[in-house]
Amino acid sequence: MADGQDSDGAAPVRRIIHVDMDAFYASVEQRDDPALRGKPVAVGGGSMRGVVAAASYEARAFGVRSAMASVTAKRRCPDLLFVKPRFDVYKAVSAQIRDVFAEYTELIEPLSLDEAYLDVTDTVGAHGSATAIAQAIRAAIRERTGLTASAGVSYNKFIAKIASDQNKPDGICVIPPKRGPDFVATLPVSRFHGIGPVTAAKMARLGIETGADLRARPLAWLQAEFGKSAGYYHGAARGQDDRPVRPNRAHKSVGAERTFETDLIDLPDLLAKLDIAIDAAWTRVERAGLRGRTVTLKVKFADFRQITRARSFAAPVASRAEFAGAGAALLSALMPLPLGVRLIGLTLSGFEGADVPAGGQLGLAL
């Protein structure tokens, strides 16, 4: 088998690792402040309108999760300790982690400060297996930063990402090609990367709860129900994902959106929902270390008609307050609305720099 290809000329089998730090922000805070160790910690605003950016595993045991309203988190965990985020520290630690990755491959696609895909197909031979590389990376991260990381090892990005969450915290999960389809079949579709809560709820109404349920639906049926996402769902349900690891992938935009259970039309209600999306969006902006000049509002009406409104600034948007102010102004300018709104979102784009980082051979051992 020359050039790492199968005898029938099939494409090489890749070796992909997804590394995901364990409760990254909260773990950094617990590392740096011994008084926080072993206690439920939430990184983010502790105010009435604040939102949890990250939660320690002690907090997660009480049901506290990222993007949860602070008041809800405190209700679930009365002893919860809030700490303000220190993104400069998180970025510095992330750079240390990135240096570890670079010792094993140049094909690194960061997704945020705390996770990345690595393609080790061309370097795995020198280390024995992709699993050995993942273990060495996890050990080096622990030694240099005092933090733990979990890893998923597989033949594509989709499965590697799911696998990294399988044995958290401080775990590893290896899914070779022969196990891929069966592994996916047993999973709830809510765990599929790219299937959010709204889509998962729609699938549940259609009788799709697991990967096996999704695999049983024909592509044409999926296209009728889910449009352009159908191809991805069809392949994922079969353990297929041809997306390459793309180093230095340029972010076109970063943001967040929220879909409502009931349509909204009054400005105060919409501003409250927009504020939730802003918290999620700005956390992603900070995680990626980005600064952009254009703020774009997305509004989807009850009849599914969608509009966007944007404003560009001379200087990059430097704070959440500026980002939120621009979004509120764009939304206010639309009033009064002709119909109720079912979805609202806000994104930042026009980033500084041309390329801002985002994020196999047959027979090589996983």
UniProtKB/TrEMBL annotation:
Named cofactor requirement(s): Mg(2+)
Give me the residues that bind Mg(2+), please. Answer: 20, 114
* A biological-process GO annotation: SOS response
- Any one GO molecular-function label of the UniProt entry: DNA-directed DNA polymerase activity
Site feature location: Substrate discrimination: 25
Cofactor mode of binding and number, as noted: Binds 2 magnesium ions per subunit.
Q: Which PROSITE patterns match?
A: UMUC
Q: Which Gene3D superfamilies match?
A: 3.30.70.270, 3.40.1170.60, 5' to 3' exonuclease, C-terminal subdomain, DNA polymerase, Y-family, little finger domain
Q: Where is the UmuC domain?
A: 16-196
Q: Does the keyword DNA repair apply?
A: yes
Q: Where is the active site?
A: 115
Q: Which InterPro entries match?
A: DNA/RNA_pol_sf, DNA_pol_Y-fam_lit_finger_sf, DNA_pol_Y-fam_little_finger, DNA_polymerase-Y, DNApol_IV, PolY_HhH_motif, Rev_trsase/Diguanyl_cyclase, UmuC
Enzyme Commission number? 2.7.7.7
One GO term describing the cellular component = cytosol
Q: Which PANTHER family match?
A: DNA POLYMERASE KAPPA, DNA REPAIR POLYMERASE UMUC / TRANSFERASE FAMILY MEMBER
What family, per the record? Belongs to the DNA polymerase type-Y family.
- Describe, as the record does, how this protein assembles with itself and its partners: Monomer.
Q: Report the function annotation for this chain.
A: Poorly processive, error-prone DNA polymerase involved in untargeted mutagenesis. Copies undamaged DNA at stalled replication forks, which arise in vivo from mismatched or misaligned primer ends. These misaligned primers can be extended by PolIV. Exhibits no 3'-5' exonuclease (proofreading) activity. May be involved in translesional synthesis, in conjunction with the beta clamp from PolIII.
Q: What is this protein called?
A: DNA polymerase IV
Write the lineage as a comma-separated list. Answer: Bacteria, Pseudomonadati, Pseudomonadota, Alphaproteobacteria, Sphingomonadales
Q: Give the encoding gene's name.
A: dinB
